[in-house]
Amino acid sequence: MSMLYREAIANDWHWEQSRDNILVNYINGGAHMAEEEKYQKLLNYLTPRSLCWIIHDLLTQRELQMLLNKSGIKYGGREFSSIPSSIIVEDLAQLFFKKPDFGNFMTRTFLKKRLKEKSKLSKLDLDAIKEYTGDCKNIFNQNRVGKVLWVILTDERQDVNEYGRVFIQHVENIIKSMEKKEVRKVKKVSRPKQESVKVKDDNLYREQIKKLEEKLKSQDNTLNQLSEVNKKLRKDTTNFNQRIELLQKEKQKIFEELEDAKKALFDQEMLFKDKKRLEKESKELRDTLNDQHDIYSSLILLQRKNLQLRGDLIRADIKYKKVQRRLIPESHEEIQTATDNPRVGVFVDVQNIYYGAKIGYQAKLNFETLLNLVTKDREVITAIAYIVQTPEINQDEFIKTLDRVGYTVKSKDLRRRADGSAKGDWDLGIAMDIISLQDRLDVVVLVSGDGDFTELIKVLKRSNITVEVAAFQHNTSRDLIEIADTFYPMEEDMIIV
Fold first, then answer.
1. SS3 string of the chain?
2. C or N terminus of the chain, fewer CB within 10 Å?
C-alpha cells in the first residue's frame, strides 16, 4: 500500500487543469442528478493520488480488469496479469478526471461496495470522526485509508466532506515522513565508514571523476544529436509516405482516365465505321428495288458462282504452267509432276475475325464452314489458326474444337505493358509462316481484314502465288480487298447463333 502511495506522489499529474475542464463539461452536458452529484463532489475533493488510494482499497483484481476493459486503455497486447497493479490504478485515476462518462461509471462501481467503515462512521458526528481518524498512521498501516476516505467523501453531511481534505493532508504527511526516513536510511547505509576507507590519491579520483563527467557530457551531446536526427528522419519518412500515397492515387486516377479515353476512342472508331457502313447501306437501299430479299439471294448465288469460276480459272492456269514446263524442260533435270489440284495454305487471324463477328453480328464464326468454303476441292497443305490467350479467359475447349475440324493452332499470351495497356497480335508470325511455306503453296488464303498484310500480298504475288482474302466486309481494309486475287465476303451463313 505504501509503495502505491509513493508512486502516486512521484507522478506529475497536472490534475487541477483537468479537473476544471471536467467540471465545465459536466455543467454543460446536464446530469442524472443522483450519481453525477456524487461524481461532482469527488471532483471537488479528490486529487489523482488520493483517488489511487480509494481504487486500491475498494476494488478487487477482477473489478480492476473490468474497469480496464471498459476504459479502452491498451498496453500493447500485454496480458492483464503481466501489468503492475500500480500502473493500472494510476491510468484509471487519470481517466476518471478526463472522461466524465467513465468517471460516472467508476463512481457507480464504488457505490456498489458495502464497507463496514460506512456503517460505523455514518453514526458518528464530526468530532467523533476526527477522533476515530486521529490515529491516521494506524489506519495507514492497516491499508484502510482509501475505504475511510471514501466513506467521508460520500457522507451526506457537508462538514464531514470538508474534513476529507484534512484527512488527505494527514495521509500525505505520513507518506512524506516515511519517505524521508527511507532516504536517510539509504544514505546511512551507503555512507562508507570513515575508519574503513583509505584514501590513497585524491587527485587521481578527481581526475577520474572529471574524465567520467566529460565522457558523460559527450555521450549526452551525442545522444541529443542522434535524437534530433531521429526526429528529422521520422518527419522525412512521414512526408515521403504521404508523397508516395499521393502519387499512387494520382497514378490510379491517370490510369482510370486513360482507360476511359481508350474506351471512348474505340467507341468513337466503331461509331465512325458503323456510320460509314450505314451511309453506304442507306445509299444502296435507295438504289435497290422493292423486292430486296430476291436481290440479296441472287447476289449470294452470283458471289458463290464467281468464287467457283475463280477456282476453275486458277486450276486451269496451274495446268497451263505445268504443260509449259513439260514442253520446255531444263537440261539434265527431270520434269517434276504435280497434283492436278492447286496446293492451298489457310492462315486465320482469329483475333481479327473474332472481333469482326462480334461487332457485325454479336455472334461467333463457324470455323469449320470457313475452312470448307475457302479450300473446296483443293489440296490443303496447311491450315493454321493464330490465337492470343488472356489469363481471364480459358480457351482450352475452343482450341480443341479448332484442332478437331482440321486446324493447327498456334497461341501466344497477351503481354501487359508497364503503363497498363496490352499488346498481343500475330501479324509478324503469320507473315513469317507464309514466307517460309510459299515454295510449297500455289494459293495462300489469308483470313483477316487487317490492312497491314497489304505489303505481304504484294510480295507473294510477285512470286506468282495466288492470294485470296476471307473476312467480314465491314471489318476489312479497302486496300486489302483491292489487292487480293479473290475476296470471300463472310456473311450470316457462316455465323453460329
1. CHHHHHHHHHCCCCHHHHHHHHHHHHHHHCCCHHHHHHHHHHHHHCCHHHHHHHHHHHCCHHHHHHHHHHHCCCCCCCCHHHCCHHHHHHHHHHHHHHCHHHHHHHHHHHHCCCCHHHHHHCCCCHHHHHHHCCCHHHHHHCCCHHHHHHHHHCCCCHHHHHHHHHHHHHHHHHHHHHHHHHHHHHHHHHCCCHHHCCCCCHHHHHHHHHHHHHHHHHHHHHHHHHHHHHHHHHHHHHHHHHHHHHHHHHHHHHHHHHHHHHHHHHHHHHHHHHHHHHHHHHHHHHHCCCCHHHHHHHHHHHHHHHHHHHHHHHHHHHHHHHHHHHHCCCCCCCCCCCCCCCEEEEEEEHHHHHHHHHHHHCCEECHHHHHHHHHCCCEEEEEEEEEEECCCCCCHHHHHHHHHHCCEEEEEECEECCCCCEECCCHHHHHHHHHHHHHHCCEEEEECCCHHHHHHHHHHHHCCCEEEEEECHHHCCHHHHHHCCEEEECCHHHEEC
2. C
